[in-house]
Amino acid sequence: MLRHPEVESFKRLIVSAITEPDSQQMDPEDDRVLLYYGTVPEDCRPFRKALLLRVVVKYVYPPERRGWRTGLISAVYFVDRVKKGVKTI
Q1: pLDDT mean over 15-22
Q2: Which residue of 37, 49, 61, 89 pairs with 23 in a disulfide if CB–CB is 3.0 to 4.6 A?
Q3: What order of strands is seen across the sheet that includes strand 23-26?
């Protein structure tokens, strides 16, 4: 968020999408990348079709103790649907 202050106002939605996702998918090309989706409340939508927030998280290997994983948010998108053709977890 330091590099992209324009998403600061969506921080709560980003964290919510990761911690309590409505849907979660694994990237077919890289099993370290997960796509998290969270519903965007109508009053928070930056444009009409922004129904979902897709947060792309890339995890580092190996998992840490107790199964914890360290990752970084590589992208955040406002989308109108879950990505097709990607394995849902």
Answers
A1: 95
A2: 37
A3: 23-26, 33-39, 52-59, 71-79
Peptide bond into 41 cis (omega under 30): no
- The Cα–Cα gap between 76 and 62 comes to 24
Residue 72 near residue 10, CB atoms below 8 Å: no
- Half-sphere exposure (Cβ direction) of 73: Cα atoms closer than 13 Å: 19
pTM: 0.85
Unique residue bearing structure tokens 């796509």: 35
Q: What is the mean pLDDT of residues 49-70?
A: 85
Q: Which residues contact 7 (CB under 8 A, 6 or more apart)?
A: 1, 14, 76
